[in-house]
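Exam revision sheet. Question 4 asks you to relate a sequence to its structure. Input first:
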Amino acid sequence: MAAPPNRRFVIRDRNWHPPAYAPGYKTTVARSPHQALVSIPQTESETVGPDFSRLPLGEHDNDLLLNFRHDGLPIGERIVMFGRVMDQYGKPVPGTLVEIWQANAGGRYRHRKDSYIAPLDPNFGGVGRTVTDRDGYYQFRTLKPGPYPWPNGPNDWRPSHIHVSIMGPSIATRLITQTYFEGDPLISQCPIVRTIRDPEAVKSLIAPLDRDMGNPMDCLAYRFDIVLRGEQRTFFENC
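Answer key, structure tokens:
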């Protein structure tokens, strides 16, 4: 007879996540806590809901190639980003909100404080959202974002990445992270990534290429599965 599945609650392992103070990533110096953390009991409003089953989505909310289109298609490498959202026991999380935001193919965000010299793309907004299906799957069509320099060091560059927010089954399970792309040589050189001690944690942030899910003669696909918490959880973004 098989052993019953382990249903114990698995708390966040702070030794697996990077330290809040990591001088190699300069902004942590000023904003890391200087006093002991305080545990705050969660209320019912944090452990249940919200319900996104009735969220009104636009026709192209999960298609970043079309949702900001004005007079043509955006320029860049077209990709599909997809995956499955699961809880700590591998059970799918249906009907939860997944949001993404990213730079364009030149590495420029549509944000008033982004001063990188790469031009904005008039047909690319860089934001999208969707709700997972009954099996926990989500999908976006977008552009592969370009790398960009940032003033952390004399010549530091961020790898290509997409920021992801996943609500999960409740407010308390919300995950904000980012996904990188398989084969990018800048991943191992990124000061943010280098705050992560465990190679398996870094691996959980890298979306592998999935040739079977791409659209022939259109775009490649990358799979980014997301585990909200527990022993197999996806790494939290440290920024």
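Marking note for examiners. The domain at 50-227 is CATH 2.60.130.10 (Protocatechuate 3,4-Dioxygenase, subunit A).
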